[in-house]
Amino acid sequence: MSDAGSPRPAPADQAFWGPDFSELERIDPEIAEITLAELDRLRGGLQLIASENLTSPAVLAALGSTLSNKYAEGYPGHRYYGGCAEVDRAESLAIERAKTLFGAEHTNMQPHSGANANLAVYAAFAQPGDPVLAMSLPHGGHLTHGSKVSFSGKWFTPIPYHVDKSTELIDYDEVRDLALTHRPKIIVAGATAYPRLIDFAKFRQIADEVGAILWVDAAHFIGLVAGGAIPSPVPYADVVSATTHKVLRGPRGGMLLCRAEHAKAVDKAVFPFSQGGPLMHSIAAKAVALKEAASDEYRAYASSVVDNAAAMTKALEAGGMRAVSGGTDTHLALLDLRELGVSGAEAERRCEAARITLNKNAIPFDPAPPMVASGIRVGSAAVTTQGFGTDDCAAVGALIARAVRAEDGTTAGDAELADVAREVSELVARKPAYPRQAPQSSAAAGDGAR
Ligand SMILES: *Cc1c(COP(=O)(O)O)cnc(C)c1O
Q1: What's the CATH code of the domain at 80?
Q2: At what angle do helices 411-430 and 29-44 cross, to 10 degrees?
Q3: How confident is the model at residue 22, as a pLDDT?
């Protein structure tokens, strides 16, 4: 742990911030110290939040660049401001790389986040009040898929579909029935806590039957698509929204991929309808991440992410947890803890005490309120970036199982959590996040070869 008296980073660490870190220390030692403490946190424990990853030094360098200064409302070649020649090149590279990597006819790289990308989809394809068919939030859907606390549920009419109670897989019969009854403007496929593959062809069929737009929200899994580890929604969807910071391992941000016929509507929905000036430093960093994602190393990474999630899930099942839907095909798994008599909130707290960062999560048909929850969600994207393999991930699963069962606040439980924390430290010391030696190349951040 760092404190106010924390030593300066080792010279090699400064590669993560560029040569200007000393300037940050001089101007704002408090924020400088926080960035070091956060690096310590990343290095000192296991990051299993399924939506997080560890970006490469190259992506961080682009994020920390002077491209942040530029106002560039509009699109490459059609800006409202002068001086955009250089940022135009950055955005054009991001666009071309995304189109090539995903085989998309059109792409918009400007959404500031996944939620912003989703707002633009509503703006492009629906009017206020229109029915939108999407996965129920407690069954794995996202806030922007019709929650009452989001614009999506306030300004549109959400029709939620669910997973089947026994298989815990999307109930495609219900999706079709609801589509035929409500005639939605948009049908949304994609979720935030669904561990299995989605049948995009089936969704396409249903959308065609009722004349709806098919929108795939690939925020979580677009990185697996980029690496060829799971099938792509692009051939099926009218529009695909995504984040760039989850498995894809780029800067925080969003992007949209769509058919050429929707290009104008989508671009106008992003700017000027819902955003102002684009974050050009972030768009440049997206271009870097897309270049990395087109590499052979990244393809190996993506397939290893899936293998690792499966290995972790197996170990968690061996530890007495039930894998929702019986397993995972992706980077994430959802575990039902009811047989252990432990809530999701308790599990999250105990794991945190053992330096394992994960989140409590509602399971389908969860009897517990969302702030308590009966499950946890784990993801393998970040640990795979730091070079973990299936053996390591099986070990991680076993450590989680021990932490979850340790009754914190009791002498024995706290001793067990300290013990697990020690083993976590040993595990991450062997394959650290942001290893202390100077990074050799941007691609090295995820090649697992260290
Ligand atoms: C993460 C996520 C989003 C939102 O992304 P932010 O960048 O956090 O706004 C949208 N949809 C789904 C399915 C997600 O998982």
Answers
A1: 3.40.640.10
A2: 100
A3: 83
To 10 degrees, the CA torsion angle through 249, 45, 308, 50?
-50
Q: Provide the 8-state DSSP code for 20.
A: T
10 burial type by CB count under 10 A (0-12 exposed, 13-18 middle, 19+ buried): exposed
Is 73 an active-site residue?
yes
**Cα–Cα nearest to 379, from 346, 336, 335, 420:** 335
Domain enclosing residue 176, as ranges: 66-293
**Are 300 and 281 within one domain?**
no
d(CA 357, CA 338): 20
Same domain (yes/no): 288, 301:
no
One domain, residues 378 and 340:
yes
For ligand 1, mutation pick of 142, 149, 194 (most atoms within 8 Å of CB)? 142
Q: Would the pLDDT of 343 be above 70?
A: yes
Q: Identify whether 14 is part of a domain.
A: no
Question: CA Rg, the chain, in Å?
Answer: 22
User: CA 109, 115, 120: angle at the middle one, nearest 5?
Assistant: 60
Residue with tokens 């293998």: 307
> Tens of pLDDT along 193-234?
999 999 999 999 999 999 999 999 999 999 999 999 999 999
| Residue for token pair 């991450």 | 428
Task: Give the separation between CA 346 and CA 417, rounded to whole angstroms.
Answer: 13
Tokens of 441: 């190349």
Count of domains forming the chain: 2
**Do 249 and 272 fall into the same domain?**
yes
- Structural domain includes residue 213: yes
pTM of the model: 0.93
Domain identity same for 138 and 250: yes
pLDDT band for 4, please (50, 70, 90 cuts).
Answer: very low
Amino acid identity, residue 180?
Answer: L
Whether residue 113 has its Cβ less than 6 Å from ligand 1: yes
The CATH number covering residue 418 comes to 3.90.1150.10
What pLDDT does residue 437 have? 64
For the chain, the straight-line distance linking the first and the last C-alpha, in angstroms and rounded, comes to 24
- Asked about 252 being catalytic, the answer comes back as yes
Catalytic residue among 13, 25, 71, 164: 71
Same domain, 88 and 193: yes
